[in-house]
């Protein structure tokens, strides 16, 4: 089985980049992956409950955030 993990929530998800707002990336990635087919898409955006205390900076999880990320991911692939 193949899995595609969409990015975690980040503190700056309203930041505008060359492709638009970061928060619009997951839906765009999902559309592309689903068009390929045969891949289970896992949207990790809510794995950290959008809690800034789960991040060491703008995007990298703390030790507690990594544990929560792992537990959330395991629930999808079991």
Provide key terms for this protein:
78 residues; 35% helix; alpha+beta; 2 helices; two-stranded antiparallel sheet; 15% strand; two-stranded parallel ribbon
**Total strand count, please?**
4
Q: Roughly how many Å apart are the termini?
A: 12 Å
SS content category: alpha+beta
Q: What is the residue-mean pLDDT, rounded to a whole number?
A: 93
Unreliable stretches (pLDDT < 50, length at least 5) are none
Our Rg estimate from Cα atoms comes to 13 Å
Percentage of residues assigned to helices: 25-40%
Contiguous helical run count: 2
Textual characterization of the structure:
Strands 1-4 form a two-stranded parallel ribbon. Helices cover 35% and strands 15% of the residues. It is flat and about 35 Å long. The termini are close together. The protein has 78 residues and is an alpha+beta fold. The mean pLDDT is 93. A hairpin with a 2-residue loop joins strand 2 (16-17) and strand 3 (20-21).
In short:
The protein is of the alpha+beta class and 78 residues long.
List the helices and strands and how they pair.
Blueprint: E1 3-6, E2 16-17, E3 20-21, H1 25-36, E4 40-43, H2 63-77
Parallel strand pairs: 1-4
Antiparallel strand pairs: 2-3
């Amino acid at each position: 089985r193949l899995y595609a993990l969409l990015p975690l929530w980040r503190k700056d998800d309203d930041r505008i980049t060359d492709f638009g707002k970061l928060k619009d990336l997951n839906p765009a990635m999902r559309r592309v992956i689903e068009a390929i087919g045969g891949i289970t898409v896992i949207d990790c955006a809510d794995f950290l409950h959008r809690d800034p205390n789960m991040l060491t900076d703008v995007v990298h999880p703390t030790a507690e955030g990594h544990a929560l990320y792992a537990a959330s991911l395991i629930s999808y692939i079991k």
